[in-house]
Amino acid sequence: MVGKIVLVLATVATGLGAGLFYAFSCAVMPGLRLADDAVRVQTMQRVNAAIQNGWIFLGFGGAPLLTAVSILLDALAGDWSEWPARPSA
Quick one: pLDDT at residue 66? Predict the structure, then answer.
């Protein structure tokens, strides 16, 4: 049960990171494309300063950590003697 919870948390954290990249690519970058160079530099410096917080580090650091813990829990709980799984006849 704990392994499934950790797997869900790892999946959510990974999805949040992917969503952040997607939203940034679809919303921020096209808007910056319309600005001049000085505004682009100033905006990106402010974004970089603002995004460095605990929630971002928790998401980006937590996703691979939770994935590794999920794999470890699955390895300890499961039978990997026939891995990769053979197709049943």
Answer: 95
- Distance (Å) of CA 2 to CA 8, 39, 59, 70: 10, 48, 19, 9
CA–CA separation, 43 vs 80, rounded Å? 50
Instruction: Identify which has the larger pLDDT, 81 or 26.
Output: 26
Give the three-class secondary structure for 27. helix
Among all chains, which residue has been given the structure tokens 């603002």?
A: 50
Structure tokens that stand for 36 in this block: 């001049």
Residues 6+ apart with CB under 8 A from 21: none
Helices (H), 1-89: 2-23, 29-33, 37-51, 54-77
Query: Position 8: which residue type?
Result: V
Model pLDDT, residue 80: 67
Q: Is the peptide bond before 84 cis (omega within 30 degrees of 0)?
A: yes
